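Quick one, probably user error.
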């Protein structure tokens, strides 16, 4: 990348192009959701709960000990002046992101027998806990490597590079390995080994992908504390608290439920929360796809012109609202049918699922401000939302838990904190940077979108009363139709036109004059 190369303007079309491939890449999350009922069927709810608790722990540890390096590259690589600088940023991220995770994995493996009693599991799974920890903890450095490598792709604005990694290898191969180990008589231990196998294959493929977009020759050189290396290190540390707290909202509830409920009840509650979280992640997928695109694009736009940031910020918020709100309403209305995929025990998670769905929708609409804040504001501003959000969640939990069942109470407290944490960056950008996404076009989009949301939710509620084999496909059709209708009738012409060929093929662009 040459310093003198002209930088094209960042527009809504830039967001739409990146979004298309990123949505495909993140469809691995949908494959993961489909796999969860099979894991519950093969290994039981309590066994799945143990797996969910250990994977939640790995995720939390990775977000702490990667030192924020995945987010750091979203800020420094797009603003790097050469391939050598980009390679230096990647080298710094790998050194400070994977190295600590490797050390922590070794320590946990050594002390596995001391840590095992902290987990509540079914009595039949108790002998498995120590070997499960010793095996599964090595997912920590593997996951850190995969996260940093795929983040490096996004930082190069190569948004589709994760597609075959996230769908074919990481998710489908995990399911295939789990099935093979189950048939081979490995039991629950096979699920942990399958997870490691899929991560190892993904990590190997990541190296091949990195070689296409980063100079490995430059990667081997340096390490002498250049400006880009220092910037990457400090950018990671600055965003680390926010990353850790964001991950806490996703994974800590399962750990808390496992700790406060004894024996198999703790494992089952963790499994039920994880089921609700996985299903609600369909809505979260909308926000994540935009976040992946917005962080590097906003960083690039900020380098050229603040007005470009304002334009793509408003555009992304309108498009998210048109997708996330009807999707959440349809899934909430059809929650009983969706949970039936996991067996009769899963119906206990219905209230938690509905709460999480609407919390994720609110987070999606407000939360696009977070990646914008990360790249245009001072580092210290990124901490306010995280600390305030977790404080609200803890306070809400103290008031709520005990007045309802543990699963619903913990989920509600988590969701309140989640929405607060998503909303604060919106206020910060408006007050400190004079940036907000609610331009004169937004009220019309919001009103039309809400009307369509109520209609779609009502239709899904009626479909949910039908037998599951009929209800489930109907709910999927209603969800897709409601998203199409919201984009087609709620968004202004220019927004739909930015979708390009896909918009024309889906008939999202009518004959009206823009």
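Nope, works fine. Designed sequence:
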């Amino acid at each position: 990348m040459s310093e003198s190369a002209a930088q094209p303007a960042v527009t809504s079309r830039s967001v739409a192009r990146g979004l298309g491939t990123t949505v495909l890449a993140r469809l691995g999350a949908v494959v993961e959701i489909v796999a969860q009922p099979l894991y519950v069927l093969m290994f039981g709810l309590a066994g799945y709960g143990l797996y969910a608790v250990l994977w939640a722990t790995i995720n939390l540890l990775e977000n702490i000990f990667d030192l924020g390096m995945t987010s750091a590259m979203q800020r420094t690589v797009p603003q790097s002046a050469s391939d050598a600088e980009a390679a230096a940023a990647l080298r710094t991220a790998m050194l400070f992101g994977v190295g600590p995770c490797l050390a922590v994995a070794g320590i946990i493996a050594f002390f596995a027998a001391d840590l095992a009693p902290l987990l509540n599991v079914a009595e039949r799974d108790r002998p498995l806990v120590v070997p499960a920890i010793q095996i599964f903890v090595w997912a920590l450095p593997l996951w850190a490597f995969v996260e940093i490598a795929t983040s490096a792709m996004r930082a190069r604005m190569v948004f589709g590079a994760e597609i075959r990694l996230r769908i074919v290898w990481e998710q489908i191969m995990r399911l295939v390995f789990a099935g093979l180990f189950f048939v081979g008589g490995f039991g629950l231990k096979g699920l942990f080994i399958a997870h490691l196998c899929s991560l190892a294959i993904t990590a190997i493929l990541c190296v091949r992908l990195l070689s296409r977009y980063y100079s490995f020759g430059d990667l081997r050189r340096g390490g002498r504390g250049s400006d880009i290396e220092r910037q990457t290190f400090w950018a990671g540390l600055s965003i680390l608290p926010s990353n850790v707290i964001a991950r806490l909202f996703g994974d800590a509830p399962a750990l808390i439920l496992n700790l406060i409920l004894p024996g198999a009840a703790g494992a089952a509650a963790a499994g039920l929360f994880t089921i609700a979280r996985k299903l609600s992640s369909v809505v979260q997928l909308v926000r994540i796809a935009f976040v992946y695109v917005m962080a590097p694009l906003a960083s690039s736009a900020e380098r050229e012109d603040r007005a470009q940031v304002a334009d793509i910020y408003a555009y992304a918020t309108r498009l998210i609202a048109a997708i996330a709100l009807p999707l959440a309403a349809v899934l909430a209305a059809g929650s009983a049918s969706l949970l039936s995929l996991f067996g009769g025990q899963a119906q206990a998670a219905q209230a938690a699922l509905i709460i999480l769905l609407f919390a994720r929708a609110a987070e999606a609409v407000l939360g696009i401000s977070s990646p914008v804040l990360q790249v245009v504001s001072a580092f210290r501003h990124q901490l306010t939302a995280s600390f305030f959000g977790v404080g609200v969640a803890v306070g809400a939990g103290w008031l709520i838990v005990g007045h309802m069942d543990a699963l619903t109470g913990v989920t509600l407290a988590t969701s309140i904190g989640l929405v607060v944490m998503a909303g604060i960056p919106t206020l910060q950008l408006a007050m400190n940077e004079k940036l907000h996404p609610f331009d004169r076009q937004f009220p019309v989009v919001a009103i039309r979108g809400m009307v369509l949301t109520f209609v779609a939710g009502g239709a899904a509620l009626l479909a949910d009363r039908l037998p599951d084999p009929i209800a489930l496909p109907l709910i999927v059709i209603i969800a897709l139709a409601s998203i199409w209708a919201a984009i087609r009738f709620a968004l202004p012409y220019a927004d739909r036109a930015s979708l390009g060929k896909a918009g024309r093929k889906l008939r999202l662009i009518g004959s009206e004059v823009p």
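The chain has 22 helices and no strands.
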